[in-house]
């Protein structure tokens, strides 16, 4: 005869089964059958109670799983594709030409790729630890418009799992309106591998964010930022930013090249100022 408490657990389990479908029902059925099998062994109360606890915990974790939809998996794959393409571009050291070198050591390089076009590579050192830089660029992503004049707004449209987000970014017009307002819809993913962080992204489509009046829908990607502590000084962070953008519209390449390289230099300066203010406030 089953112990009274076990009968109650079994009754509750079977009541829940009636309301379950698909994988959740299969998981619950399997665990309920296993509990019945254990009870038939006439194990002591302590033994079967521990078994119930372990399997109930397993059941709860399985029921809490939220499988990704086909659309969500597509976005995740796009983010992974952006990451792999970006790392491949940055991993090839040949063919890079210097665009700009600043007195503080910041530099912008460029390279023309057959299937992508011209890409830009910013290399800087920031006098803040990696966690502070990562937090500002990822955790506080939607606040970027507060400190980067090139950005009017960044909005997270959807989060998918722990690593992937879909964003809408409004870029401000350049001085003199040489390049008018642009906006971007992107899928972004953030990966941390040991002491190195990679933030990658690329243009995507999102039904709930059609083209906006007053903005030209531009496209970016593959693009990424790589963050890692400076060797021998973890209080500093080496930041490499691969920028690849199609601004759309009828713009001379000379103007585009000048705007994009300057945008990267300005970004580094504004990021440093933001981090300095954040540290000062927290002290």
TrEMBL record:
Free-text function comment from the UniProt entry: Plays a key role in steroid hormone synthesis by enhancing the metabolism of cholesterol into pregnenolone. Mediates the transfer of cholesterol from the outer mitochondrial membrane to the inner mitochondrial membrane where it is cleaved to pregnenolone.
Keyword check for Amino-acid biosynthesis: no
Assembly behavior: May interact with TSPO.
GO molecular function: cholesterol binding; cholesterol transfer activity
Keyword Ligase: no
Protein's UniProt name: Steroidogenic acute regulatory protein, mitochondrial
Compartments, record wording: Mitochondrion
Originating organism: Cairina moschata (Muscovy duck)
Top-level lineage group: Eukaryota
Single GO cellular component term: mitochondrion
Pathway: Steroid metabolism; cholesterol metabolism
Pfam families tied to this protein: START
GO biological process assignments: cholesterol metabolic process; intracellular cholesterol transport; regulation of steroid biosynthetic process; steroid biosynthetic process
Key words, A-Z: Lipid transport, Lipid-binding, Mitochondrion, Steroidogenesis, Transit peptide, Transport
All copies of domain START, residue ranges: 92-280
UniProt cross-references to InterPro entries, sorted A to Z: StAR (IPR029866), StAR-like (IPR000799), START-like_dom_sf (IPR023393), START_lipid-bd_dom (IPR002913)
């Amino acid at each position: 005869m089953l112990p009274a408490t076990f009968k109650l657990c079994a009754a509750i389990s079977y009541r829940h089964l009636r309301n379950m479908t698909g994988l959740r029902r299969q998981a619950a059925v399997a665990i309920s059958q296993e509990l019945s099998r254990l009870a038939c062994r006439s194990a002591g109360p302590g033994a079967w109670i521990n078994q119930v606890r372990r399997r109930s915990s397993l059941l709860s974790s399985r029921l809490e799983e939220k499988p990704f939809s086909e659309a969500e998996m597509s976005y995740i794959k796009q983010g992974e594709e952006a990451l792999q393409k970006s790392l491949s571009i940055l991993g090839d050291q040949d063919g890079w030409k210097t665009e700009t070198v600043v007195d503080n050591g910041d530099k912008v390089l460029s390279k023309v790729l057959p299937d992508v076009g011209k890409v830009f590579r910013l290399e800087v050192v920031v006098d803040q630890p990696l966690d502070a830089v990562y937090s500002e660029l990822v955790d506080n992503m939607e606040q970027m418009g507060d400190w980067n004049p090139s950005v009017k707004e960044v909005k997270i449209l959807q989060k998918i799992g722990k690593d992937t987000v879909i964003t809408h970014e409004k870029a401000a017009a350049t001085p003199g309106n040489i390049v008018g307002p642009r906006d971007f819809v992107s899928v972004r993913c953030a990966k941390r591998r040991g002491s190195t962080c990679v933030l990658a992204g690329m243009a995507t489509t999102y039904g709930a964010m059609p083209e906006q009046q007053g903005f030209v829908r531009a496209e970016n990607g593959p693009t990424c930022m790589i963050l890692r502590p400076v060797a021998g000084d973890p209080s500093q962070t080496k930041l490499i930013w691969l920028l690849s953008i199609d601004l759309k519209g009828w713009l001379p390449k000379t103007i585009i090249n000048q705007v994009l390289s300057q945008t990267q230099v300005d970004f580094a300066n504004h990021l440093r100022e933001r981090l300095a203010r954040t540290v000062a406030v927290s002290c």
